[in-house]
Amino acid sequence: LGMALGTAADEARPPPWASLRHARLYLGPAARSADDAHALLAGLLRQFRQGVGLGREEGRTKREGVSRWPEGQVLRALREADAPGIPWEHPPDPAMVQIAKRQPELLSMPRAAFGLPIVFGFIDRMDKEASSTLNADSQRGDRFASPLRLRPLRCQKGFASLVILYPNRPTGVCVVMNARGAQRKEISLGIKRRHPPATRAAVATWLDRADGDAAEAFVLYLQGQRFIEATRRGR
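^ thats the sequence. predicted structure below, dont judge the formating
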């Protein structure tokens, strides 16, 4: 793109705010219009986060299948640890409940890397006991902007799909449960934790390749969808 994005020394010291100097740029396939480019980008992110066969299992009925990401299982385990004996529609893994009781710092909410807050609302009546909001750690406020920017890029002939990845990630997650009497919990995001507990097949593979960083895993996924890195570093 003809844009120098900083020196090696600058790269080692990214500021705590979003800065193009420390970002990485990725260009995807050409599109006829800005709408087409945007639809491609949004579709790829949706597929990675919750698409059947990648982000979730195939449903057996008209309902969606179970997520392959760990957050739902983690939230049910945290709630069960606080209030044992809930008649869950989808019971949490007993091993996860023990981790929630004894070593909650081992738990991980990898999709927090896409930005916070995230609202988790469970459909099944008893699973609603685990409905929660994930906020950024309380020291920096509840919100954390996504490190991803998905943009149509006007070119000489048509449009390209542009993805910008900033290096900033949340330092922690505060779990606020909606159930009456539930405790406010702060747990570690585990941004560098490979294969966090309760993560299934395809998602676990991508997280392992990215050292547990879901945003980094997404751009690795993009490179398998005809995206190339277009960052040019200054000297």
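The chain has a mean pLDDT of 84.
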